[in-house]
Every structure is written in C-alpha cells, then in structure tokens.
Amino acid sequence: MKTEFRLEPLSQLDVSALVAYTFEDAPASSGTAERLPEETRQQLQELQTAGELTGKSFELTILRKPAGLTVAKLLVVGAGKREKFSETLLRQLAGAAARHLRSRGGRELAWILGSAELGAVASVVEGVVVADYDSDRYRTERSAEKSIDSLLLATGGDALPADAEGALTQGRILGEAQNFTRDLVNEPSNIMTPTKLAERAAEMAAQFGLECEVFGPEDIQRLKMGAFWAVAQGSQTEPARLIVLRYSPEGAPEQPVVGLIGKGITFDSGGISIKPSENMHEMKTDMAGGATMLGVMQAIAQLKPMVRVTALIPATENMPSGNAFKPGDVVTSMSGKTIEILNTDAEGRLVLADALTYAKQLGCTVLIDAATLTGACMVALGNITTGVFGWNKEWVNRVLDAANAAGEKMWQLPVDDDYRDLYKSAIADLANTGGRYGGAITAAMFIGEFAGDTPWVHLDIAGTRWANDEKPYRAKGPTGHGVRTLVQLLTDFQA
Ligand code: BES
Ligand code: MN
Ligand code: ZN
C-alpha cells in the first residue's frame, strides 16, 4: 500500500474516494466534515435533516459526485459522541472506511486530516493497514485481491506538521507488525511448523537487522531443557526449535534486558491427554504468544527504542505418539526443579518454564511472557480482554499502563501464595496442573516459579488471540492482540 500526503485544497483533490467523519448529536459537518467546502456541508446538512445521516459510530454514508468537490465520491463515517472520541476509535474509523470502500472495489482513499493533527497521521495509517488484512489466503478467489493500493492523507491546503513523515512511518510499522503476527497465527499447522516458524523469524531478523539464533532438538537436550523436551519428544515428524532474537541498540544502558518469551506450540492436540475433536482445529493458533513476540521484535527493530530486548520462542507441536510424554511421568526442568506430569495438555507452562530459565541465563533482568495458556482465562475474560499476572507490582502496572495507552484491553488477575497447594505434587517438586478451578491463576503461578526473583509478567492471550466475528474495521480471525501494548511498553524507554 502506497501512503502519501496531499497538500492541495480539498475542492481540488482528484481521487476516487474522499473520507470525512462526523459526530453524533452535533452539526452534520462536525469532525473532519467541518473542513469540507460550504456546498458539501450544505448537502450533509440536508441528509441530517432528512434523518439519513446521524453520526452514530461506524455509520457509513456515500455521496456520489458531492457538491463542491471533484472527487467521485465522499464517504462520511459516523464517529459517535464527541466525548467518546479516542485514538483507538480514530484507527477504527479509518479501518472501517477502508474496508467499506474496498468491499465495493475501491482501491484508493483520501483521508481528511484535521488541522495540525500529527497523532492522527499515525492512527489513520495504522488503522488502514490493519483493516486491509484478510485471513483467507488459501481461498482461490481471495477477498484480499480487493485491497487498498493507495492511502492519501489530505491536509486540505494546510502545511504539513513537523515530522509528519515520521508519524506516517510509525503508523505503518505498527500496523505491519500486527499483520505479521496475524499471518503467522493464521497459518495452519501443516505449514507453520516449528521449522517454518524459525525460518520466518530468521527472515524477519535478517530483514530488520536483529540477531537470530535457532536451536534444534539436540541443543534443547544438551541445555537440559527437560520440560520443553518432554513436550517436544512427542512429535515424530516435526523437530522442535528454540528461537532466540536479540535487539541490542548501541548506546542503550546494560540493564534492563527485557526478555520476551512467547509460547510457540504450532499445534496442541493435547498429547496423550488428547483434546476432544470439536474445535481442535483452533489449536493451530497455539503459537500466538510466539507470533506476538515476533511482531513486537519487527516493530522495535524499526522504531529503535533505547532498551535491550531478547525474545525467546520455544516452538514445538504437542502430539500423541509412541514417543510422547505420558501422564504420571516426572521430568527435570532446566532449572533443576522436577515436575510431575498430570496432564499432557498443560504443555504451555512446561515449554515456558525452560524458556524463562534460559532467558535468565542469557542475562534478561525482567521477563514478560505471552501465551495462549488456558481455557480458564477465556472463561473468565472472554475474547475481549487479556489476563495479566505477576508478583512484581511495578512491572505489572507498567504493562497495564502500556495496555491502556495502546488501547488494548488487559485486566489483572491475582497470584497468591494460597493457590500454591493446588499444584503440589506427591512425588516431585511441582505438578503441571492445579485443577479446574482457578486454572488461569495456577497456570500463571507455575510459570512464575521459574521466574524466581526476576520481575515477571504473564499475559494469557488464549481468548484475545482470535476474533470470532468480523468488525467494520477488521477481519475475523487472528487479532495481533498484545503487539501494541508491548511495543508501547518498550518505546516508553525512548525518553
Ligand atoms: N492451548 C491450550 C489453552 C487454550 C484453550 C488456548 C483454548 C486457546 C483456546 C492449553 O495448552 C491447554 O490445553 N490448557 C488446558 C490446561 C489444563 C489441562 C490444565 C486447558 O485450559 O484446558
Ligand atoms: Mn494444551
Ligand atoms: Zn496449548
């Protein structure tokens, strides 16, 4: 998608579609519609009087050959009540406009910028990039063939604000990072194998100048990652990979080193504790945590915050086979702690346990993991809100603040010593499940046992990884949820 600024007066713009937004319970030419020529505003006023234009959020009204403009059509998007306007909504409005136009064969759109709105530039670009993504790449007649080729940002004759180009680039980087994550999550497990995930990570790292190291089964065993290996040994055809990416900007302080650990189960059958077949296909998305971290790394490699970051993705299938680990097995994790396996479907915490231990060994001083960890978290928060866990109040709050600033819904759930008894084992240091009740908490706390004294925050994205329905501003399917928050958290180090 080409993106560029257009500085001519709106009345002289020669594009196929111009987009303005207008507020509810306000004059028809409020919002950016305020900037339209007098004759066009008159037309909008008439539509409002006739009850055909209300400004309700995501209302879409098309005017062909609008008065006072040379454009073929004007699309007016309802922005809802002025008091509720936000950056998130602006991204969504731009996305809704893009999806609406392209569903009718439009490939070009011009968005009217409010005067001197630098923040809006990034939001609009990101909103359109995210909206232009589709999850139907395997359909032979793809809807993505109808995509937006050209996004124009119209200043209506005003001069560009300083660093407008920078804002444009930032919006594009953030949007593309989320789409990269969504692409990885969307791929079926016969294609997105651990090997393929590592290849995609290495390609991305090479393109954006990150260090990348990929370990295989022998390395995993040599490093004594007994918990990761327990899960990995079940796949007889797809070798496991441990993906490590490093971002170390010159001049950044030695500490902190932020460790981003993402669950990379490319298919979770449940293993010997096999899952019911209904909805099992959704378990191709069980590497969404890993994909989130790859999206974050792609973004920061370009945005260049002044902080060291290491990403670790333990990637493997979880399969039943003659080699598979079994309920009742006891394994020794890299940390030395022994784990009794009570359910092979609680595999995420096992691969993360060893990845966290290795992250500390590599010098990470703060750990953040993202994982499609528990159905219990989905029961608690649905697919709207990510669960946030951790003992370290400061880091939990930093993540929650970043989520808030990023417009992603995240909510803290407790960790508490009183839950510890639930995952005690009769014969080993820990058991890998804590039972049905409080399942998201005991899963999180199990991982936390391996963080030890290192500040650690866990994000359970089981619900938020995937959207079951389409919205005006984005396709159904993989969401890329979490990327914005973590990029926000890391770019806060810029100052
Ligand atoms: N990957 C699943 C969790 C999951 C479920 C993610 C639904 C997305 C949608 C995880 O590995 C799992 O199977 N968890 C079990 C844990 C249980 C065996 C203690 C669960 O949540 O049922
Ligand atoms: Mn599982
Ligand atoms: Zn899983």
Helix-strand layout with pairing:
Layout: E1 2-6, E2 17-22, H1 38-49, E3 60-64, E4 73-78, H2 87-103, E5 108-112, H3 118-131, E6 150-154, H4 164-186, H5 194-208, E7 211-215, H6 217-222, H7 226-232, E8 241-247, E9 257-262, E10 264-268, H8 288-303, E11 308-318, E12 330-332, E13 338-340, H9 348-361, E14 366-371, H10 375-381, E15 386-389, H11 393-406, E16 410-412, E17 430-431, H12 439-451, E18 456-460, E19 466-467, E20 477-478, H13 483-491
Parallel strand pairs: 1-6, 2-4, 2-5, 5-6, 9-11, 9-14, 10-11, 13-17, 14-18, 15-16
Antiparallel strand pairs: 3-4, 7-8, 8-11, 12-13, 15-18, 19-20
Helix pairs in contact: 2-3, 3-4, 4-8, 5-8, 7-9, 8-13, 9-12, 11-13
Bound molecules: ligand BES, manganese (II) ion and zinc ion.
Keywords:
six-stranded mixed beta sheet; 2 domains; binds manganese (II) ion; binds ligand BES; 20 strands; binds zinc ion; elongated; Leucine Aminopeptidase, subunit E, domain 1; alpha/beta; Aminopeptidase; nine-stranded mixed beta sheet; 495 residues
Question: Would you write up a description of this structure?
Answer:
- With 495 residues, this protein is an alpha/beta fold.
- The protein has 2 domains: 2-160, Leucine Aminopeptidase, subunit E, domain 1; 173-491, 3-Layer(aba) Sandwich (Aminopeptidase), CATH 3.40.630.
- The chain is built from 13 helices and 20 strands.
- The strands form 4 sheets. Strands 7, 8, 9, 10, 11, 14, 15, 16 and 18 form a 9-stranded mixed β-sheet that branches. A 6-stranded mixed β-sheet has the order 1-6-5-2-4-3, with helices on one face. It has a 3-stranded mixed β-sheet with strand order 12-13-17.
- Strand 12 and strand 13 (338-340) form a beta hairpin.
- Helix 2 packs across helix 3 and helix 4 (164-186) runs antiparallel to helix 8 (288-303).
- The radius of gyration is 24 Å and the shape is elongated.
- The protein starts with a strand and ends with a helix.
- The structure holds ligand BES, manganese (II) ion and zinc ion.
- Ligand BES is lined by residues 268, 286, 343, 345-348, 372-376, 378, 433, 439, 462.
